[in-house]
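hey m, so remember when u said the tokens were messed up on ur end? i reran from scratch. heres the input so u can diff it against urs
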Amino acid sequence: MAKKNDFVTRNIMSDVGNLPVDRPAVNALSMEEVVAFLENVSPHYRNCFVTAFFTGMRLGEQVGLKWKSIDWRNKKSLIRESRVAGIEGRPIEGETLRNAIWTPALKRAGLEYRSMYHTRHSFATLVLSSGESVGWAQSMTGRASLRMIKEHYFRFIPNLTHQDGSAFSTKFEGVLAKTTPNRPIRG
């Protein structure tokens, strides 16, 4: 405010960096764990969790979904808004869903506890581990850049193209052998 009101000539806050934030590690459910969870969740809530696990939608995005946002012909839903408790009626609250449905279903399935947000992590890891493009995963999760996908999910991306340097070595093996005759042979 001081800079905005011309009390000072320079905004000293521009010199202050953000504190690092410790984020919990991604502990996504495997496909087998997703199936076990879905087999143990109340049938009344099964579709909610199928949607969460296989679209990556947040709870607020699910309850904010309107019929006009569903394109039945192209089998797409457009996420345009999110709802929170107290706005436009009373959607189910996350804490109620977690305590009454999510946690008991995890226990019945014999799975370790993790937050409901891990449905979103599970979607991203399942998509990437199945070989879908990183760009598609970014688009489906609504991320503005690939940075977050890389930071959180890189270890789940399989090496389907063997982009580990072996293609380079194979392609230039003859040149390498001529120019570096004492080079150790890879095993």
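this time it looks ok to me. The chain is about 45% helix and 0% strand. if urs says something different then somethings off w ur setup not the seq
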